[in-house]
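Reply to thread "Modeling small-molecule complexes from scratch"

Following up on the discussion above, here's a worked example others can learn from. I took a protein sequence and the SMILES for flavin mononucleotide and predicted the complex. Inputs first:
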Amino acid sequence: MSVLVVHESHFGNSRAVAEAVGAGITDGVGADGGVVVVDVTEAPDALPDDLDLLVVGGPTHAFSMSRAATRHDALSQGAEPGHEARGIREWLAAVAPSGVRPDVATFDTRVTKVRRLPGSAARAAGRSVAKHHLGTLVDSASFFVEDSPGPLAPGELDRARAWGRRLATRRE
Ligand SMILES: Cc1cc2nc3c(=O)[nH]c(=O)nc-3n(C[C@H](O)[C@H](O)[C@H](O)COP(=O)(O)O)c2cc1C
């Protein structure tokens, strides 16, 4: 099973979730299932033709996926430099689809305190997947941070790993 996990992260939380999801997928498919986890700034310009599952995730910024302006806001709030150029919004809009339509799952991180607010980068990413014909959306999930820079709320990495395992085994 060929799997690509693409993450955007400014404070490291979505990256940690992506790595846990990747580990969960490996739990599900076994160590020989090619699971690649990559930062969106280094993600491929075209989806591989043998791709079975694409997972895309990043932080919720201003109720949706990040934009250049919100990424600069993150930087001014102490985020790691080097992640301003491209977010998952821009990557999803630009990446070339593959010949086969992979399953696609999207995730986001967002703040526990405002979890009742409607905005979710995962849902926005799901809409972008459909708009750009990148594959079949099979699931979206949110994982929670305690505050903007983190940390992740207790248990979220375990939940992310379990979600990855479910994604890998859902077609069995
Ligand atoms: C500019 C900016 C806007 C944000 N807007 C929201 C928001 O609308 N809803 C929310 O729950 N969290 C919001 N957050 C908090 C982010 O979701 C949080 O920083 C992110 O989940 C951390 O993940 P990361 O370490 O992968 O960047 C915002 C953060 C920044 C920097």
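What I'd highlight from this example: The mean pLDDT is 94. The chain is about 35% helix and 20% strand. Questions welcome below.
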